[in-house]
Amino acid sequence: MINKVRPHLSQNELLVFERSSPGKKAYQLPELDVPAVDAAEALGAANVRAEIEGFPEISEVEAIRHFTRLSTWNYAIDYGMYPLGSCTMKYNPRINEVVARTEALAWAHPYQPAALAQGSMAVMAQLEAALAEITGMDAVTLQPAAGAHGELTGILLIRALLEKRGNPRKKILIPDSAHGTNPATAAIAGYAVQNIPSSATGVLDVSALAQIVDKDVAALMVTNPNTLGVFEENIIQAAEILHKKGAMLYMDGANMNALVGIARPGDFGVDVMHLNLHKTFSTPHGGGGPGAGPVAVKKVLEPFLPAPRLKRTGKKWAWDYNRKRSIGRVKAYYGNFGVLVRALAYILAHGGPGLRNATVDAVLNAVYIRKRLEAYYDLPYSQANMHEVVFSDHRQAKLGVHTGDIAKRLIDYGFHPYTVSFPLIVHGALMIEPTETEGKHEIDQFIEAMISIAQEIETDPQLVKTAPHGTRTSRVDEVTAARKPVLRWKPA
Amino acid sequence: MRYLPKSDFERREMLGACGVSQPEELFAHLPEAARLGRPLNLAPGISEYEIVQYFRDRAAENGNGFACFLGAGVYNHYRPVLVDTVVSRGEFLTSYTPYQAEIAQGTLTTIFEFQTMICQLTGMDVANASMYDGSTAVPEAAMMAVRATGKGRVLVARSVHPEYREVLLTYAKNQGMPVEEFGYDPETGTLDLEDLERKMDDFTAAVIVQTPNFFGIADQVKEAARIAHGRGALLVVVFTEAVSLGILEPPAEADIVAGELQSFAISPSYGGPYAGIIATREKYIRQMPGRLVGQSVDSRGNRAFCLTLATREQHIRREKATSNICTNQALIALMATVFMTVYGKQGLRELAEQNLAKAHYLAGKVKPRFSGPFFNEFVVKVGAVEDLNKQLLKKKIIGGLPLGRFYPELADSVLLCATEMTRRADMDVVADTILRAATPTEVTA
User: Fold this and answer.
1) Is the pLDDT of residue A56 over 70?
2) Which residues contact B65 (CB under 8 A, 6 or more apart)?
3) In principle, which of A115, A119, A400, A407 could form an S-S bond with B58, CB 3.0–4.6 Å?
4) Positive or negative CA dihedral for B287, B290, B292, B298?
5) Is the distance from CB of B343 to CB of B263 less than 8 angstroms?
6) First to last CA, chain B
7) A188 touches chain B (CB under 8 A)
8) Residue of A147, A476, A481 lying closest to B102 (CB–CB)
């Protein structure tokens, strides 16, 4: 029984190119207050282009309707629960959008003199300090643009330190439960990847780790809590094993929403980690970015952080470019400042106690979902979970229905699907992360939907296998899209 | 905490259902030594009004009300109101990467439009769904050229944005990808093609040039292409000022275009977030980094879009992926898409013409150092750079970028930028101050 949603009409809309007609405009420029210039004369005729073929030509009214109509074809957190595991889709406070547009912050040019950028620098300094306190680390760089970019920065820091110690080493250890960005990052940083199998209980196998770590191992990249939502109970021992052999412990902070105010990576042996401000710290995901991926490090790695670094001289902030051991820049300018503003606004709104309360609610939601759904879905790993819970489609697959089908059917019930088929160590995974944003009412509706789908699979599996049924777009033929790629519009 | 929807009553109910009496028990399985035994040392939460006030106070510590002549990769262009109207819609703002195509057609369709517009602008066959920014698009383009050619070396022009080159070096260092620079002509400010010819070899995977280059000059893309292609290298063309594409010939000879879209309604915001692009020829599609949206049909036969060619990407290929990029800049790319829609075919041309006219008005008063054709920024030799900029600050003007930090040989020069937002009266003040500050020979030589 579907209670949460019912169909409503949505507008059809052509592509903007198909709506265009010559001579239509949505702009008006002011009169020039200087003489016009002949482009061919100023630039040389060969440098001047012909008109931009196919570029849009529509009116302002048509433009706003175009984008508004398209927007209604999206699901969003503002519509309801978005339980994508590992993605931490939480409420994006609107005040953050307002303050990020404060004029003298939004219009600050990265090269304006430091004396005229003290406020921007103070915002960054305060965020660095807050993130250091939250992670228990000694120093933070805000330069990386997103999580994977932070990972790369972190691994380059490890490489720089090991090089200084005489040997950058050859490989990075990565558990088989890790995000795909981890091995991709290690490869870009010039390391070989050695995948290490999880133990039977889905966590790090420390005795196996002790066997594997040798003088070729630069670091272990670990997500904690891991992608099963389980806290790595042996993390401190793992850090000791690595440190004893001169290797480092990197933590992927994607799941930091389970730990803020409860446990700090700096206290359990992590040497370097990144945070995803667009996950834990509520900056909007925007359909796939922008993000920000600050990297927090222990003191020993601080000299290698990307230049420039914020520096306090007297009562003023300055940029310190004189960083001899720095790994260099990972991005132009100083970081995704607009995202940093939003993250700081989130931290200020919560304060220390509020951040901890958010973590408690996030974990409570995931534990509650597990308790109420474990009678209906197979739970491959039985340890206590934190902010997310991972089921498998083991029972449903026997009836020919797989995790991807259940996810699609969830759409008909008015929810965004959970993360499908990840982590890879769970066959047919359903990875559910509710976050603290969901109240009991929304969570209960989600649970009822999941139970109802489990029942449908027993009585009418075809209904689930062909879902979604209520959306304006039904299942998309992804095979044809990949086989014959059409990646841009062309006139008929 | 006002963002947490549960009442204490609901919380207790849920804890009870979990068989737990205190919230702390939810964390009992964490090893004692890993747990933080104290509250975070952060102030208590504050109200919405106090947050507004906090950021207003910080903004007041920045420069306010200055006219700005800085460009150098970040440009002051007007942001049409429609841009924020669209990106503030929760459906765009608060949605995730569009993996579930049935309920993400809004985002997917706008990205498909974005990819199309970038192709139209650059003259390339395909464009991806965006990169972090222009600076990180450059090393991604270099790595792509290495994969496509099977060669390893990269030649980059010194007239490519200096910070982009720094980022390229950071990435290249650990990949056995040697990077060498070639110069610019001290008279024209365009590429030193002889230096490029001299440094070219058969192991070079990519030649990287920028147009308009860091000095604002429309550079010699065709000549660079001839030299690069002659030795089997790919030509990567970088741009930082996207508005220039409204009037400048697109870099059709390029194999890869790596650019920055900040000019398209993305606020300067002290350096980010911006949106980069990578566009290329059809034959290199499978070497591209980043997300791609493709057209298909749904099971009812209606046109529909989805993410495609994911076999290049990290979540499928892991260590064998073309890049580690995951999150990109979708919402910022949407800003650019709305901007391109609002200005459209005629508007982008007119906007570019206004930029050209403004910069050339200013340049008419203070002689540019280089003779190459420029778009909306140019280099001027002014002598005592810091003194000049101090004088301008007193007149509420942020002067041009002092070039000494990046080009020691240009320590006596600034890079001045004028856009459609620059007022004639301010340009007159800048010109006047430069002319007064310099000896006649310095400015007119």
Assistant:
1) yes
2) B396
3) A119
4) positive
5) no
6) 66
7) yes
8) A476
Burial class for B199, CB neighbours closer than 10 Å (0-12, 13-18, 19+): middle
B306 with A416: Cβ contact below 8 A:
no
Distance from CA of A274 to the nearest CA of B (A): 14
Every domain of chain A and the residues it spans:
16-71, 95-348, 353-478
Closest partner CB to A15 (pick from B80, B113, B350): B113
On whether any CB of chain B is under 8 Å from the CB of A114, the answer is no
In this structure, CATH architecture of domain A353-478: Alpha-Beta Complex (3.90)
ipTM of predicted assembly, 2 dp: 0.97
Which has the closest alpha carbon to A434: A489, A359, A382? A359
Chain B interface disruption, residue of A188, A279, A373, A471, most B CBs within 10 A:
A188
Chain B contact for A470 (CB, 8 A cutoff): no
Per-residue pLDDT of chain B (445 residues; tens, 9 = 90+): 999 999 999 999 999 999 999 999 999 999 999 999 999 999 999 999 999 999 999 999 999 999 999 999 999 999 999 999 999 999 999 999 999 999 999 999 999 999 999 999 999 999 999 999 999 999 999 999 999 999 999 999 999 999 999 999 999 998 889 999 999 999 999 999 999 999 999 999 999 999 999 999 999 999 999 999 999 999 999 999 999 999 999 999 999 999 999 999 999 999 999 999 999 999 999 999 999 999 999 999 999 999 999 888 788 788 888 888 887 899 999 999 999 999 999 999 999 999 999 999 999 999 999 999 999 999 999 999 999 999 999 999 999 999 999 999 999 999 999 999 999 999 999 999 999 986 555 544 4
Q: Which CATH number fits domain B67-78+345-444: 1.10.3720.10, 3.40.50.300, 3.30.70.260, 3.90.1150.10?
A: 3.90.1150.10
Domain residue limits, chain B: 67-78+345-444, 81-338
Average pLDDT score over chain A: 97
| Cβ B208 vs Cβ B238: under 8 Å | yes
Chain A CB contacts of B320 below 8 Å: 187
CATH of domain B81-338: 3.40.640.10
Within 13 Å of residue B272, how many CA atoms lie on the same side as its CB?
A: 32
pLDDT (0 to 100) of residue A417:
98
CB B64 within 8 A of CB A122: no
Contact A330 B170 (CB under 8 A): yes
Facing residue for A187 by CB, picked from B4, B319, B398: B319
Helix axis angle for B48-61 and A337-373, nearest 10°, is 150
How does DSSP assign B311-328, residue by residue?
Answer: GGSHHHHGGGSS----S-
Please list the helix, strand and coil fractions of chain B in percent, rounded to the nearest 5, in that order.
45, 15, 40
CATH number for domain A95-348, candidates 2.115.10.20, 3.40.640.10, 3.20.20.30, 1.10.10.10: 3.40.640.10
* pLDDT at res. B439: 59
Per CB-CB distance under 8 Å, the chain A contacts of B175 are: 188, 190
With an 8 Å Cβ cutoff, is A274 touching chain B?
no
